[in-house]
Amino acid sequence: MRLSGLLIAWSAVEAQPAGVMVIRGTARRSEPQASMCATRSRASDGEIQRWAQAGEDVRTALQELHDELDGLPNALMIDGHASRRVWPGLHNNKQGLGKDPGDPRLWLPASGLPPSWNPVSIIRINCAQAEMPRLVAVTEKQKNGKTVTVKTSSDLYYPESRPEGHPWFLFTEPRNYGKKRHGQWKTRWRADPGKASKNADERKENELNAPWYSMTTREITPMHTRDGYDRETLAVAAARLCHQALSWSDRTRYPAPLHAALQMGLGHPQYRRSAPKDPESIEILKEASGTDL
Fold it and tell me: Is the pLDDT of residue 12 over 60?
């Protein structure tokens, strides 16, 4: 496994005379290590040290942020997929456990800082579609009391059983969801190839040529939330921050603080420690920016 990249952002909402929301962010990328053996299951000491150093850099940034904000509460947003190897304490299977004494990595981004310096919550964002649940259908109750099933939605959902520490999922309806809605009922595997014929009555549309779409999902998981702060409120705030796009009318893949951090790295590569070279890192950047690199 290799460190595919690290996107860190923090957001702080300050009361400005003009009602301006101030977003502070930073982006940092760490060059992946070359893999000597594709079948190895454990990371090398050098890779672990690189991840540990990345965590230390973030902790230093959080310490400096506390001084700058003069105690103003703030929440930390992280790309959970890109930073998975940096903080073991944010893994699902590590909740309720303690730090491994033999692991040099920080357990959490603010580990070792005074409790009052910690973010009020760590909001883990995951946009890796291969790991996300896909929306199949939504049952809605209309005003007249009837129940209908819809195939797309752009709303924020949570698991019905609401287990402790559960995530929220923000679904997005694709922009090409128009007159041709073949993807509403089936995938391309079941598309009708159609039939070509000189006789107009015998022709059948080739569904593969029509616009298809795929629902996208964002996982929003507030973690290690301080008492007095509501996880649902934080999740809703993160979802709304996906609507702060400056250059188009739709959502950004990441909430505004993470999106801004990513764009700073993409727009000013000369300030990055290194450019990503491995396929996994490049794929993350392509998905986040919506462009080919």
Answer: no
